[in-house]
Design goal:
The chain is mainly beta and 112 residues long. The protein is built from no helices and seven strands. It has one domain: Jelly Rolls (Sandwich).
Length: 112
């Protein structure tokens, strides 16, 4: 896993970058993004996140499991790319549809 974040629903309003406080969203080394897991919210598919590498749109992803404390299984990983994350380029996760009450956990997988 490259990095992850857990944010309360109250802080995840539409247009907010869920990775804004994540120190590892930018690295001094190039990395490769291969997967993404989004869990939490009250129901599956309740929340949507637009993922960008700098200004490159990776895609829109929904939570694939409700409940942040749930154990993540390989089925919850959504494959992407592989997408190169250049050194110094931030990964951004803009909230497109906010969760109603429960927090979200977003994990970015890859090499780097």
């Amino acid at each position: 896993m490259l990095f992850n974040t857990v944010e309360a629903a109250a802080t995840l309003t539409v247009g907010t970058d869920a990775f804004r406080n994540e120190r590892k969203r930018t690295s001094s080394r190039p990395r490769i993004m291969t997967g993404l897991a989004i869990v939490g919210g009250n129901t599956i598919g309740e929340a949507s996140v637009d993922v960008f590498i700098e200004d490159y749109f990776v895609g829109r992803f929904q939570n694939s499991l409700n409940g942040v404390v749930s154990i993540l299984l390989p089925d919850h990983l959504q494959p992407v790319g592989p997408h190169v994350i250049p050194a110094g380029s931030p990964v951004v996760a803009l909230i497109a549809v906010a969760p109603t009450v429960s927090p979200l956990k977003i994990q970015v997988y890859g090499q780097g």
